[in-house]
Amino acid sequence: MVKVQRCDWCTADDLYTRYHDEEWGIPEFDDHALFERLILESMQSGLSWLTVLKKRERMRERFFEFDPGRLARANRSNVECWLKDEGLIRHRGKLEAMVGNARAVLEMDAAFSEFVWSYVGVPVQNRWRRSAEVPPMTETSKRMARTLKNCGFSFVGPTTCYAFMQSAGLVNDHLVSCFAHDECARVGRE
Q: Would you name the residues annotated as active-site residues?
């Protein structure tokens, strides 16, 4: 059996492997899915990505499927309840930011996908050979973070924005040795 070559950050955990193979770097244009990805990236700050993936389904259940309209109506009572749920990431600042970010996305003049994709137009196709070459942030992610903050978002710094851009396929940061690099590049050209 031939071993599939993946990015070296992808662990052998099935959840991680599925995320790498089926989501990470594949261009996403759906407003709702993009909002979820941004929230997950902001939840990850200071934690391992595997921790976020393991709690993702519970977060979907408790956070109204990441529906901005429903999350925007959450109140202090919701946050207090979420803080007691061990299946969630229990960080008051992140939870309050998620609610505030839902409100901010609803107040945007454009659709969230339109806003997000305006930063690149088409997916940026990088050709990294080693993980050490991949930057933690770029000028584009800095601009995105600044604009989001000006729109009322929080927990969306330049590193979080770049991780979001990678996740949502705005940039293809799969290593060239990874089987997914060429697939993401092909999807990005369609």
A: 19, 41, 49
